[in-house]
Amino acid sequence: MSSMSAPSIIVFDVNERLINIESIAPFFEKVFGDRKVLREWFNQLILYSNVITLASYYETFFKLGRAVLEMLGSIYQVHVEPADLEELRTNMLSMPAHEDVPEGVCLLREAGFRLMTLTNSPPDKDGSPLECAGLARLFERQLRVDSVRRFKPDPEPYHLVTELLNVASSAICLVAAHTWNILGAQSVCFSAGLVISTGNAPLPIDRLPQPQVVATDLVRLARQMIAL
Q1: CB distance 188 to 161 below 8 Å
Q2: How many C-beta neighbours within 10 Å does residue 13 have?
Q3: Band of the pLDDT at 110, cuts 50, 70, 90?
Q4: Is the separation of the CB atoms in 153 and 127 below 8 Å?
């Protein structure tokens, strides 16, 4: 663990760090006959969210997710029905929390950290994924990239946090499950904590910043941060 300043605000990524996207694997097994297509879909979703940001376009994460599903249907020659697109939207809104989240978040709250979220997912008339998972009450604010119309890891969503909270970057630590998200936050001088999960790990390049705290679950990460 490298040195870390003393942040007072922790900003969590939502998809994969708080919310368990593996819960929708049965949907991909039903549509494609292979639950592993979930990972291909999610990776393509992140890829194209970055592409449209770099190209100065914008569409919401949910609409992009449905379009990527149709794209994969074309690639695999699987007919994606309108009902499948609606089911995906419902699934994206109703994913459950990871088991380690309530305890880890409560430890950090009790230690005096201010807790926020920053997500690529847009607001929705049916509520946020955090509300559906029963987690919204644990966080002071839910921040979204739609107000800047650029997806993470572009610097603008992270700058949005400092502007809305009127704090210095050094006051904020981003906690996420993806190194690409960590690097985006560190590019604007946030500190960072990485929770390693299946399919995610640090990127060992000496000239790139590394997360200051790394743990295998949120409870362990919370205890490390409290100890600091």
Answers
A1: no
A2: 22
A3: very high
A4: no
Instruction: Round to whole Å and give the CA distance between 129 and 100.
Output: 17
Alpha-carbon dihedral of residues 84, 86, 91, 92, nearest 10 degrees?
A: 120
Calculate mean pLDDT across residues 205-209. 94
Going by C-alpha positions, the residue among 12, 8, 20 that lies closest to residue 182 is 12
Q: What is the pLDDT of residue 1?
A: 41
Q: With beta carbons less than 8 A apart as the criterion, state whether 144 and 118 touch.
A: yes
What are residue 141's phi and psi, to 5 degrees? -145, 150
Among the listed residues 90, 52, 48, the one whose alpha carbon sits nearest the alpha carbon of residue 71: 48
Q: What is the pTM of this model?
A: 0.93
Q: 117 is in which domain, residue-wise?
A: 9-20+95-227
**Does 60 fall in a domain?**
yes
Q: What are the tens digits of pLDDT across the range 149-202?
A: 999 999 999 999 999 999 999 999 999 999 999 999 999 999 999 999 777 889
* 195, 207: one domain: yes
CATH at 102: 3.40.50.1000
The dihedral formed by the CA atoms of 80, 81, 83 and 85, expressed in degrees to the nearest 10? 40
Distance of alpha carbon 86 from alpha carbon 81, whole angstroms: 9
Q: What are the DSSP calls for 105-169, one per residue? A: HHHHHHTT-EEEEEESSPP-TT--HHHHTT-GGG-SEEEEGGGTT--TTSHHHHHHHHHHHT--G
Amino acid at 159: H
pLDDT: which is higher, 133 or 58? 58
Helix (H) or strand (E) holding 227: helix 218-227
